[in-house]
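ok, trying the design again with the full structure, not the truncated one.
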């Protein structure tokens, strides 16, 4: 051990003491800050399934690999960071003594190979990630870059440290070989062995390279420790916890049902709730749970959520990534005030800090941050702009794509809940929606007695529940759209006719049915949702009162009703087997109870409804039905779990779209790129939105006047019904011109298909 080694070693140790001290203090502070959130005891167990999910997601990179061009490089960097830590700690000995190696494994050939792979992997992976970042730089126009709004300096710093670490590992090893300290087999050192042949024999170089390897890590610790909001760095630690504590303990993403309203770690009971004490959604950042704060801390700013967001892709102010980072920055800036005991009541008056000088010792910036409204425009100095909050369609693309399991939709709805129920501050169009739901039990404000109007001119009787379920197979949940919206009625009629033809015993509720409450809940009006849901659960439980649980089956045509009945009603005591009509019809075709005989020989593109696909993973059944009907399926570029939203979810169906391009028009433009004869879907909301988009494009000459939007059930009915009549009709034949063979009632979806009562507000394109 020479003077050089001693000097370098002392420098390394001194810097390390400071660096590890800064980092340890930062970890403690970050944990304290995250714990400022509301309690949530649902996240801790069961242990085994959560641990299994954690291991699968990080070891196999199951979620990261959704972006295949990025996944392998990030996988290399991740393992380089985890296992490379052993090489980092080895540097403490190598600085003082170039001959130092870990006991037992230090000269073991497999360890030498692992070091080789770690060094190469981190260098190659770090460089590749930097290139990918440059290739997707925000200089690209029209919001094409998923990195727009991300912290590039922080990302490049992290990537630079990764590369330096890898070079340090390789450099130490190469100089050990060139100096004769080690003589590993070529297969275990296939890069460093040839490199050592051109390097001088210098043991001092081993210590220098070891110091470089060590200092790069120590600098990283100091920088990260001083910047708690550097998510691109902190996710290396917090991502493991965020994955483990994700909402669904079975490993699923936070889609399907919404997180219930929580207060003090327990579901909120509206009958006993006190607005002065209980938390109603999220009106202040401290109203989010600790898991929400962990979400904010874990965001890597990779922008995958942003790249998939329909609002962002159509010029609206919502970026799920920037919403999370804005909440993060606000939370950490406000944290000193909260940790000092600061708290404001609903009127904005201070109730937490007392005394003659209550603000003494609190950072003035934290005090200023405490005065900001969580939701408010620029004039009100709000953290989240209202247009950002209300642009969300709840499509779930952000949650589906996030590699670290951030639960964007739950946080957005929590903020909406507070705005609706406490502030009464929401888009004016929702006033009519809420009133209609409360007073009429449906969004359109129609009378319950008209719920069976869709069945009036069918040539068979639709059975209405008469008090005895008996040997009935399914309760057919028609839904509000299926009962009142003219375009959706065609789907209802088609499904009823197919069930009749297949001799399926079913019944409908008729006037006893009311809205499931989905639009109210997604808009933030939890009170109205609870009212409607409890009413429906009571009715359904009475229908199935004498039916064994395994036979309590419901078939629905609306993706939103499907999601609510299947995923959210169990929390209220409503446990049923709920199937979507495409699933049931597909099964009937497989069982030969429905036999398509006259192929719909047309090019069809299928639009995945968000609440059927992403929220509930139903992708194959509707596609199989399109094939069974004899149509040629042409997929849009964005389909499956990356499908583009139609724009109707999150109660957006009842709100004007005044910013940017209409989402439904964007989706129709994508569909037109497949040159389809028809656009098929499996949800009445999607059908309305897509039809409006088609009408807009037909008016400007971008779409053929013959292009129709149909439900998958109509395609099947056409193939089955014409086949049963033994009158196959060729596409384009006169018999089909009146409305297309997919329309059982001979009426195509046209601009005037719906009456004034069933028109979506703003259904014509004003852009």
């Amino acid at each position: 051990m020479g003077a050089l080694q001693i000097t370098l070693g002392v420098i390394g140790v001194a810097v390390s003491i400071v660096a590890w001290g800064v980092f340890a203090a930062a970890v403690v502070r970050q944990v304290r800050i995250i714990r400022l959130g509301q309690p949530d005891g649902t996240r801790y167990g069961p242990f085994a399934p959560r641990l299994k999910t954690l291991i699968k997601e990080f070891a196999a990179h199951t979620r990261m690999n959704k972006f295949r061009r990025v996944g392998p490089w990030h996988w290399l960097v991740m393992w380089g960071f985890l296992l490379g830590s052993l090489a980092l700690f080895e540097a403490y000995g190598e600085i003082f003594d170039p001959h130092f190696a870990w006991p037992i494994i230090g000269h073991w050939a497999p360890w030498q190979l692992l070091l080789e792979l770690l060094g190469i992997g981190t260098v190659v992976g770090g460089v590749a990630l930097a290139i990918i970042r440059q290739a997707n730089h925000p200089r690209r126009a029209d919001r094409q870059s998923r990195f727009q709004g991300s912290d590039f300096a922080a990302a490049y710093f992290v990537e630079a440290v990764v590369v330096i670490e890898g070079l340090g590992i390789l450099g130490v090893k190469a100089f050990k070989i060139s100096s004769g300290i080690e003589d590993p087999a070529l297969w275990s050192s296939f890069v460093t062995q040839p490199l050592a042949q051109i390097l001088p024999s210098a043991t001092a170089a081993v210590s220098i390279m070891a110091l470089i390897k060590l200092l790069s890590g120590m600098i990283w610790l100091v920088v990260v420790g001083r910047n708690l909001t550097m998510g691109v760095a902190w996710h290396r630690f917090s991502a493991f916890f965020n994955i483990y504590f994700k909402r669904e303990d079975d490993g699923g993403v936070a889609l399907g049902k919404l997180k219930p309203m929580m207060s003090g770690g327990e579901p909120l009971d509206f009958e006993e709730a006190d607005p002065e004490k209980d938390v109603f959604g999220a009106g202040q950042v401290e109203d989010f749970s600790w898991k929400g704060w962990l979400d904010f801390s874990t965001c890597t700013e990779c922008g995958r959520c942003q790249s998939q967001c329909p609002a962002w892709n159509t010029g609206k102010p919502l970026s799920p990534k920037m919403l999370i980072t804005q909440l993060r920055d606000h939370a950490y800036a406000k944290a000193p005030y909260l940790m000092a005991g600061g708290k404001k009541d609903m009127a904005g008056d201070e109730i937490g800090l007392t005394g003659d000088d209550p603000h003494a010792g609190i950072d003035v910036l934290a005090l200023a941050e405490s005065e900001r409204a969580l939701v408010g425009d620029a004039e009100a100095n709000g953290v989240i702009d209202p247009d950002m909050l209300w642009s969300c369609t709840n499509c779930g693309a952000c949650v589906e794509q996030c590699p670290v399991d951030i639960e964007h939709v739950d946080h957005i709805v929590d903020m909406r809940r507070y705005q609706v129920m406490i502030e009464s501050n929401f888009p004016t169009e929702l006033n009519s929606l809420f009133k209609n739901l409360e007073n009429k039990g449906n969004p359109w404000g129609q009378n319950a007695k008209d719920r069976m109007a869709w069945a009036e001119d069918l040539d068979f009787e639709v059975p209405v529940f008469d008090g005895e379920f008996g040997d009935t197979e399914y309760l057919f949940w028609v839904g509000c759209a299926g009962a009142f919206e003219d375009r959706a009625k065609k789907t209802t009629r088609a499904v009823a006719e197919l069930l009749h033809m297949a001799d399926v015993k079913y019944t409908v509720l008729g006037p006893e049915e009311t809205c499931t409450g989905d639009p109210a809940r997604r808009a933030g009006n939890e009170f109205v949702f609870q009212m409607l849901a409890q009413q429906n659960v009571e009715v359904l439980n009475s229908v199935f009162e004498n039916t064994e649980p395994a036979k309590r089956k419901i078939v629905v045509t609306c993706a939103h009703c499907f999601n609510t009945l299947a995923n959210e009603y169990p929390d209220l005591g409503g446990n049923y087997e709920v199937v979507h009509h495409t699933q049931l019809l597909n099964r009937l075709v497989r069982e030969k109870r429905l036999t398509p005989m006259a192929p719909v020989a047309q090019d069809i593109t299928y639009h995945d409804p968000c609440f059927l696909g992403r929220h509930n993973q139903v992708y194959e059944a509707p596609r199989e039905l399109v094939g069974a009907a004899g149509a040629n399926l042409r997929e849009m570029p964005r389909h499956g779990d990356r499908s583009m939203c139609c724009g109707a979810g999150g109660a957006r169906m009842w709100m004007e779209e005044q910013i940017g391009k209409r989402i439904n028009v964007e989706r129709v433009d994508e569909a037109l790129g497949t040159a389809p004869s028809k656009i098929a879907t499996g949800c009445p909301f999607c059908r309305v939105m897509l039809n409006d988009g088609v009408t807009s494009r037909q008016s400007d000459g971008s779409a053929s006047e013959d292009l129709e939007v149909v439900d998958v059930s109509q395609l099947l009915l056409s193939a089955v019904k014409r086949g049963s009549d033994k009158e196959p009709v060729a596409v384009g034949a006169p018999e089909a011109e009146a409305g297309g063979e997919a329309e059982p009632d001979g009426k195509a979806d046209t601009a005037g298909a719906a009456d004034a009562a069933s028109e979506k507000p703003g259904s014509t394109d004003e852009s």
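Keeping the full-length input from now on. The radius of gyration is 30 Å.
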